Amino acid sequence: MQETTRDIKSMTLEELAGVMKENGFPAFRAKQLYRWMHVSLVRNYGEMTNIPKAMAEHLGKEYPLTTVRMIDRQISQLDGTQKYLFAMGDDSLVESVFMRYKFGNSVCISSQVGCRMGCKFCASTLDGLYRSLTPSEMLEQIYEIQRVTGERISHVVVMGTGEPLDNYDNLVRFLHLLTDENGLNISQRNVTVSTCGIVPRIYDLAKEELSITLALSLHAVTDEKRREIMPIANQYSIAELMEAGRYYFDRTGRQVTFEYSLIRDVNDSSQDAQMLAELARPLKAHINLIPVNPVRERGYRQTREEGVRAFEKKLEKRGINVSIRRVLGRDIDGACGQLRHRHLTDQKQETVSDNAGE
Ligand code: SAH
Question: pTM (2 decimals)?
Answer without folding.
Answer: 0.93
